[in-house]
Amino acid sequence: MNKTDALTLAVLGAGLVVAAALQFVTAGGAVDEWQTTVTDGIGNLELALGVMLVAALTALVLDRRRAHLQDVFLATDRRINGTAMRDNETGLFNRQYFYDRLKKELVEASHVGQTVSVAVLSIGNLETLRQLRGAFHAEQASRAVSRVLRDHLRVTDVPAHLSDNQFAIMLADTNRASAETAFSRLDAVVESMVFKAVPGEVDLYLRGGIAECAWGQSGEDLVRAATLALISAVPGSPGVHGAVEADEQPANVVPITPPDGVPEQVQHAGRRVAR
Q1: What's phi and psi for 31, nearest 5 deg?
Q2: What CATH number does residue 149 fall under?
Q3: How many CB atoms lie within 10 A of CB 20?
Q4: CA 131, CA 138: separation in Å to the nearest integer?
Q5: Cα 28 to the chain's mean position, in Å?
Q6: In principle, which of 80, 159, 173, 233 could form an S-S bond with 240, CB 3.0–4.6 Å?
C-alpha cells in the first residue's frame, strides 16, 4: 500500500467515525425537525462514505493484482532472456552472448584504460573418455567441468560454451598474470573432481590459451589469439595444460600481426605437466 492509498483510507475511516459520533449524539434526543434533518444527512453521509470506502478497497485490491501480474510478466521475461543467452547443453553462456558481452567490455575498457583477458579452454582426455565409455559419459564430464567454471569464477567473469570441447572465459579488468592464476585454480579443481568415469584410466584436466588485450581490439581478434595459443603451443597437440612464460612458448606459435601502432597482443599457453 502506498502513501496515497493509506491517506485515502484514513480520510474515509475518519468520516465514518465522525458520522457515527453524530448519529450517537442525536439518537437519544428529542425528535425535533432539525434533528430529523441531521439524522437523515448523517445517514446519507454514512452511505456515501461506505460506497467510497468500498471503491477505495476495490481499487487497492486491483492495484495489488496488477502489480503482481506485472512482477509475473517481468519474471517470465527474465527467464526467457536468460534462456536465450544460455547454452542448453552446459548451462554456460552461449556464443552470441559471449561475443556481445566481450565487445561491450572491450569498448568500456578502452575508455578507462583497463585490461581484458580471454581464456579459451578445452577438456583434456575428453575424447579418450568418449571412446572408452561413450558420448553420454563425455557429456556428463562436460557438464561437470561447466559447473566448475560457473562456481569458481567471479560474478563479472563470463564463461561460455563455444563448441563441443571449446570453452571461453572473458575476464574483465584482468591482466595475463591474473588470468593465469584463475586458470590454474580452475584446472586444480577439475583435476581433483571425484568424477572419474574410468578410475585409473581417464584423468580430466584443462588445457588453455590466454590472450590479453588492453588496446581495444575486436573480440574476434582476442578469441582468435587465445585459440591460436591453445592449439599452437605443442606441435600435434590440440591444447596445453599448466602455465609457462611467454619466452617459453614453442617456436611454431604463429604471431598475430596487430594493427599499425597497436602493441602486439600477448599470447599465452600452458603446457601439460608431466606426471
Answers
A1: -105, 40
A2: 3.30.70.270
A3: 12
A4: 9
A5: 71
A6: 233
101 and 175 together in one domain: yes
Query: Would you call 112 exposed, middle or buried from its count of C-beta atoms within 10 A (0-12, 13-18, 19+)?
Result: exposed
Per-residue pLDDT reduced to its tens digit, 148-173: 999 999 998 999 999 889 999 999 98
Q: Which residue matches cell numbers 614453442?
A: 250
List the end-to-end C-alpha distance of the chain, in Å, as a whole number: 66
Residue 274 resides in a domain:
no
What does the pLDDT look like over 193-251, one tens digit per residue?
755 555 556 788 899 999 998 665 788 989 999 999 998 754 444 444 443 333 333 33
Query: Hey, what's the torsion of the CAs at 197, 200, 204, 207, to 10 degrees?
Result: -150
> Which structural domain range is residue 256 located in?
95-269
Q: Determine contact, residues 260/253, Cβ cutoff 8 Å.
A: no
CB 189 within 8 A of CB 228: no
Do 179 and 220 sit in the same domain of this protein?
yes
Q: Which residues contact 184 (CB under 8 A, 6 or more apart)?
A: 242, 243
